[in-house]
Amino acid sequence: MGELRLMKGNEVIAEAAIRCGCDGYFGYPITPQSEVMETLMDREPWDETGMVVLQAESEVASINMVYGAAGSGKKVMTSSSSPGISLMAEGISYIAGAELPCLIVNVQRGGPGLGTIQPSQADYFQSTKGGGHGDYRLIVLAPSSVQEMNDFVDLGFELAYKYRNPAMILTDGAIGQMMEKVELSDYKPRMTAEEIEAKYGSWATNGKKANREYNVITSLEMDSAKMESNNRRFQEKYKQMEEEEVRYEMFQCEDAEYILVAFGSSARICQKSVDLARAKGLKVGLLRPITLYPFPKKPIAELATKVKGFLTVEMNAGQMVEDVKLAAGCSNSSVPVEYFGRMGGIIPTPGEVVEALEQKLIEA
Amino acid sequence: MTEEIIIAGFGGQGVLSMGKILAYSGVMQDQEVTWFPSYGPEMRGGTANVSVIISDTRISSPILHEFDTAIILNQQSMDKFEKTVKPGGVLLYDPNGIVNPPSRKDINIYKIEGTKIAADLGNVKTFNMVVLGAYLKAKPIVAMESIRKGLEKSLPERHHKLIPLNLEAIQAGQEKLEAVNEI
């Protein structure tokens, strides 16, 4: 059993990064995620593991530092909150286009614009459908506990390297600021260039060896035919992610007539809503997508043939509801898919969710 | 056992750290805990509150709209949280600065002269530990041994010399809890 601590989600991201052998963190402060870099600076991992921690002059600089360091094969990351992630969008698209692994953590706050510093899930579209330009995808993990903040750092890096693609932890101010009991991971040593090459292949620009051609890291390709074939390769990669990496969790769905679909902190609230609804005699279950991309289409399509309705619960104006509708529609089912949510930093209460379920699906 | 608590008062009263020590004590006796703060641009003198859940089983929502216990340390928080105590639950308050005392008849109401007792102990900063002691008298949900371990874990090592004083404050709070309305 690993070390047990009581920690904030943001602090755990930092601790997990050090322990999983991260080589570098580049970031810029913004509420509600500032404790990530604060914890790293306090821990001084450069003395312990050799990890670099650098406060850049802006979010644009930090994502481009990540781009450069990732190009040399290093295990690197950044974190920010919504407006800062928007600033990074160009760099993220370049990293995806250059096929490099990295981890980006978005501790979401209410938007649009400078918005508020309170929790939100309004960056679902930005994270799962693009954000930057071009046909690219991020692997998007949505933790719903402080423990998962720990677990998904290592998992995020693993997936990022497996696919040579940026991975994102999409969380929010509630989980970032909340403290829970967490079992920390054991320390893993940082990987050497040789170990990375042996495990993931030779693509990093870390010094040309006599026995191979130059490795080139770029997202630029002036020949359209070649750019199209690059895109086809990316799409193959995304298809493989959809086949192999879907993760989700189901609560009390076996006999459920109505399914709540929620991720991250909304999913925690909905667990309580399921209990409240069941106490009233309503057969309600919860499906929690853990990967938002790739999205768990199949379990939703299967449930669509059995249940009377879905209610997505999101801290936004209704974004994931579109993916649930598409997934439910895959089984030619006309089952209703409704949305309930709060915006601008307001967190729905478990009771509100049950009321919405009754109004929108049961009494409708 | 699941205990859902809201602690609310002014920033600077030690509301968040009281919650942290309580939550850490739960961790020390192998329970599940969440500590969810109201975070925002608030500073010293503004309002601050934290909800703490301690449970023997997996905790679902860290965000709640009703509580087993409310620990209330200023009038604004009384106005906001008296109504959120579940029927049969506990409301503990410090009368210092309270103009409109709690009036509900369906809950257990206790008070603790935390401000005064902390001053008598010679360190007004122990106020939150006096209140914590009073709460543990009304609801002994964690063992004193776990509280001591919780203090060790939550306080940086350079402050460990203050642990005996904190324990003294907790004890004073336990001794001086007053029942206002018991059902």
Compact description:
The complex is a heterodimer of chains A (364) and B (183). Chain A has 364 residues and is of the alpha/beta class.
Would you write up a description of this structure?
- The complex is a heterodimer of chains A (364) and B (183).
- Chain A has 14 helices and 14 strands.
- By secondary structure, chain A is α/β, with parallel strands linked by helices.
- Chain A is globular, with a radius of gyration of 21 Å.
- The mean pLDDT of chain A is 96.
- Chain B has 183 residues and is α/β, with parallel strands linked by helices.
- Chain B has a single domain, classed as Pyruvate-ferredoxin Oxidoreductase, domain 3, CATH 3.40.920.
- Chain B has six helices and seven strands.
- In chain B, strands 2-3-1-4-5-6-7 form a seven-stranded mixed β-sheet, sandwiched between helices.
- Chain B is globular.
- At the A-B interface, β1, α8, β8 and α11 of A face α1 and β2 of B.
Provide the fold topology.
The complex is a heterodimer of chains A (364) and B (183).
Chain A: E1 4-8, H1 9-19, E2 24-27, H2 35-43, H3 45-48, E3 52-55, H4 59-71, E4 76-80, H5 82-97, E5 102-108, H6 124-129, E6 139-141, H7 146-163, E7 166-172, H8 173-177, E8 179-183, H9 193-200, H10 224-244, E9 248-251, E10 258-261, H11 264-279, E11 284-289, E12 291-293, H12 297-304, E13 309-314, H13 320-329, E14 337-341, H14 350-362
Parallel strand pairs in A: 2-3, 2-4, 4-5, 5-7, 6-7, 10-11, 10-13, 13-14
Antiparallel strand pairs in A: 1-8, 6-12, 9-11
Chain B: E1 2-10, H1 15-28, E2 32-37, E3 47-55, E4 67-72, H2 75-81, E5 85-93, E6 108-111, H3 114-121, H4 127-138, H5 144-154, H6 163-175, E7 178-181
Parallel strand pairs in B: 1-4, 4-5, 5-6
Antiparallel strand pairs in B: 1-3, 2-3, 6-7
Helix pairs in contact in B: 1-5, 3-4, 4-6
